[in-house]
Amino acid sequence: xxxxxxxxxxxVNIIALATDGSEYSDGAVQEAIFLAQACxxxxxxxxxxxxxxxxxxxxxxxxxxxRQEIKGYxxxxxxxAGDNDIKCEVVIEESRQPDKTLVELAYxxxxxxxxMGRHGKGGLLTLMVGSMTSKVIGHGFPKVLVVPRxxxxxxxxxxLATDGSxxxxxxxxxxxxxxxxxxxxxxxxVISVAGNEEEVQTAGELVDDICRTIKEKDVxxxxxxxxxxxxxxxxxxxxAREKNIDMVIIGGHGKGLTKLxxxxxxxxxxxxxxxxxxxxxxx
Length: 283
Hints:
Elements (H helix, E strand, L loop, with lengths): L13 E5 L7 H14 L2 E9 L5 H28 L4 E8 L2 H11 L4 E5 L14 H7 L4 E5 L9 E5 L4 H16 L5 E8 L5 H17 L5 E8 L2 H11 L4 E5 L9 H12 L3 E5 L3
Parallel strand pairs: 1-2, 1-4, 2-3, 4-5, 6-7, 6-9, 7-8, 9-10
Antiparallel strand pairs: 5-10
């Protein structure tokens, strides 16, 4: 992320960073450190060891091994935080439901933003798309930023994916706030994917209205509406790459892992896109 980006996430006091100690967390660690330093925010590093094993003895052995394996990685994060004058706290817990525990900890520490990697290794907090990541998002934490391993956010081009549902309205508000407050943003793309030709007009009205709202906020960035027909996740991923987007903003799917359309699309976009994805949940 570039140094201009201090206002990209708005006011942030506490950032929660979820890590399993693997290299797949590197991108998330980098962005957490930058945002904490830029926003003057505190950082709480969360690692939850999965103890959902057959016996108490094996669970204890697993926990001991995992704590030893993750120590060096956590120590390095603490060193990075210290070098940047960031107040940093580390929490390592054991749980049979690591996704639930992770979200509970983020709430307990009053985190404004939860940052996590897209993939991970087995045994710890396995951040695999479709399992742990989707479960965490399914618990409805307000803002979850998923960062690929080797990706760095510049904040120059963002893509809002919307279907007009309640689960995407908070994402619209977040995008408007970003565009208004962050001078680094040069282009905002707003995309709605129609299921067929008959839905194109409605989708067009939706994205035009959002762009109009953004422009009414005296935003300097260009706002471009995009309407396409096809499979939503594929179109969003392809558009993000074509436009060189570095953050997709999308609504989640609420609590309980509901089977709403936007939930499925969100999971697939996280899994396939080259860039960071900010999932904003409906309040």
